[in-house]
Amino acid sequence: MVPAGYMAKKVKSQPDWLKSDGLEELYSISGCISEYFCDYIPHWKHNGFWLFDSPAEITAVAAAESLNMSEQRIFYYELYENQFDEQRKIWQPFQADKSFKTEVSAPKSKKLEGFDVVTFSVQTSPECSPLSCNRLAESIPVNAHCLLPSLEEAIRLVESGAFDNSEPGPFRIFAVYSCDAA
Fold first, then answer.
1. Which residue in 85, 94, 139, 142 has the fewest CB atoms around it within 10 Å?
2. What is the pLDDT confidence band of residue 155, given thresholds at 50, 70 and 90?
3. 10 Å Cβ neighbour count for 48?
């Protein structure tokens, strides 16, 4: 797994339209349901994975936007080093966008919450998390945060075609950690 960076999000509870037993809050990396703290891209402080190298950079963007961050949670992400091309059924290496500095500092403490499968059809920022966005959590067992229990399970499901016909890929797998802002 490769350190990918941080994001602040306003975590949402299980939406009424997503029927999955035991689901409480959505920790998906996509901003479709649990939204990013702001439209951060115009600030150009993100790294080559379109996340942030440290919580301090998130704080700087929030300050520039005069945002109250009290309802936001900070997440740290690590990324499986290959992405899956669902058309060709192969894993391919990829890298951070070299146009951006990518020097992710590890959190002092982190708690693994699970694994998310995310689409990257444009090859820049995370797009959709089919487990939540396409309601795949209704047929694929997920934890209370709409995440998969292990990297091995995420790889198995992607390779088996469980995410085919959800959103255009390729698919990348993220480890999702909760962490402190400091």
1. 139
2. very high
3. 19
Q: How far is CA 127 from the centre of its chain?
A: 9
Written as one string, the DSSP assignment of 103-166 is: -PPPPSSEEEEEEEEEE-TTSSS----HHHHT-GGGTS---TTS-BS-HHHHHHHHHHTTTTTT
Taking a C-beta distance cutoff of 8 angstroms, is the pair 163, 86 a contact? yes
The answer to whether the beta carbons of residues 132 and 33 sit under 8 Å apart is: yes
Spatial CB neighbours of 30, under 8 Å, sequence gap ≥ 6: 116, 118, 126, 127, 128, 129, 132, 133
Tokens of 166: 């959800």
Q: Which tens digits make up the pLDDT trace of 75-131?
A: 999 999 999 999 899 999 999 999 999 999 999 999 999 999 999 888 788 888 999
